[in-house]
Amino acid sequence: MFVEGTLRWQVTEDCPWDLLIALALRDLAGLDSVVAHALPRVTPAVVPVLHGDAGGGRAEAKPAARGALSAQWDALFEAAADREHRPMTPLLQPPHFAALDRALELQDFVLAHHDEAARWARDRHAEYTRASMEAHARRAADIVDVVHEREHDLRRQAGYFRLDIDVLPLAESGAWIVGPHTVAISASLRDDSAAFRAWFRPLVAALV
Which residues, at least 6 apart from 13, have a Cβ–Cβ distance to it below 8 Å? Predict the structure, then answer.
């Protein structure tokens, strides 16, 4: 995570582990079309897991489990996206995943497929960390310059605001509100300085 701002305003940026795991599990279970939090699929893709396909291929989660899984996954996603109450340790702790003790269908799915989701999330988090370190000055300027532009236009300093940006490896470029003063954006949008600034300017104009 990195933080830009002053005593008056603050923008944080991160690629949260819990959200990476949640999105990988969603796509592994083939739930992307039925859950309430409609973020795009992840990239690189994870393929829905096998459930009794005699042909040896891979298929989506059993239809009978999809309703319970989707509701339980939505609850997991809300907890993962809640910056205010996010625990210091990962939500999903092997081997028992106690956070899912009341979400038995999802707990069973996680017990079977957490390792695959974790491998994918670990690689994506490493990619974000590497990109963030290599382009830190540019990424920081993308935020600070836009706020300063707005202050110059208004001929005053920015008032108080806070924005948390979660950068995620999503297959579609864009931004989605995922919680109080929290926005998820695709890594492709964050990597494009001009596109990021074009998206960020009207948001800052609304906040300042």
Answer: 1, 2, 3, 4, 132, 139, 143, 164, 165, 167, 190
CB-based contact 83:1 (threshold 8 Å): no
Dihedral, CA of residue 12, residue 132, residue 127 and residue 100, to nearest 10: -10
26 within 8 A of 14, measured Cβ to Cβ: no
CA 37, 40, 46, 51 torsion-angle sign = positive
- Contacts of residue 97, Cβ cutoff 8 Å, sequence gap at least 6: 107, 110, 111, 114
Find tokens 């605001």 and name the residue.
161
**Element (H or E) spanning 128, and its range?**
helix 104-134
pTM given for the model: 0.89
Per-residue pLDDT of the chain in tens (208 residues, 90 and over written 9): 667 777 789 999 999 999 999 999 999 998 988 888 889 999 999 988 755 443 444 445 566 667 889 999 999 999 999 887 777 789 999 999 999 999 999 999 999 999 999 999 999 999 999 999 999 999 999 999 999 999 999 999 988 999 999 999 999 999 999 988 899 999 999 999 999 999 999 999 999 8
User: Which distant-in-sequence residues (6+ apart) come within 8 Å of 4 by Cβ?
Assistant: 10, 11, 12, 13, 140, 143, 144
